[in-house]
Write a structure and sequence with these properties.
The protein is mainly α. The longest helix has 34 residues, at 33-66. Helices cover 70% and strands 0% of the residues. It has five helices and no strands.
Length: 113
C-alpha cells in the first residue's frame, strides 16, 4: 500500500526523496502512511514484549520442574482455571461418558461432584 502512496505522489510531480512527506500523504483509499507506521511500530513492540513474557513463562515451568512439579500437569491446571465453571463441568461430564463407553476406569476424585 505504501507503494501506492509513493507512486501517486510521484505521478503528481512530487519528489519521493522526502520520506516523511510520503508517510503523511494519503492515498485515494484514505490511508495515512504515518498512522500506518505508528500502528506497525506498536504491533512490533507488543510482539517483542509477548516474546519476553513467553520466555518468562517457560522459565517458570523450568523452575517448577526443578522443584519436582510436573509441568504438563501445571499447564493443564492453568488451562482448566481459565475455563468457565459450566464449561469445565461439561468437559468433565463428556470425559466420563467417553471413558465409560470405552470401558475405562473413572478417576476416583470425580465421585465427589
Amino acid at each position: 500500500m505504501l507503494e501506492v502512496a509513493e507512486s501517486s505522489t510521484l505521478s503528481r510531480g512530487k519528489s519521493s526523496n522526502n520520506k516523511s512527506s510520503n508517510r503523511k500523504a494519503s492515498t485515494k483509499e484514505g490511508i495515512s502512511g504515518e498512522h500506518l507506521e505508528q500502528i506497525i511500530m506498536r504491533i512490533e513492540r507488543l510482539e517483542e514484549e509477548k516474546a519476553e513474557l513467553a520466555q518468562d513463562v517457560r522459565d517458570l515451568y523450568l523452575e517448577a520442574k526443578s522443584n519436582g512439579f510436573d509441568p504438563k500437569i501445571i499447564r493443564q491446571i492453568v488451562r482448566l482455571r481459565k475455563m468457565e465453571p459450566n464449561d469445565l463441568e461439561e468437559q468433565e461430564t463428556l470425559l466420563h461418558v467417553y471413558m465409560r463407553a470405552l470401558g475405562m476406569a473413572l478417576p476416583s476424585s470425580s465421585s465427589t461432584h
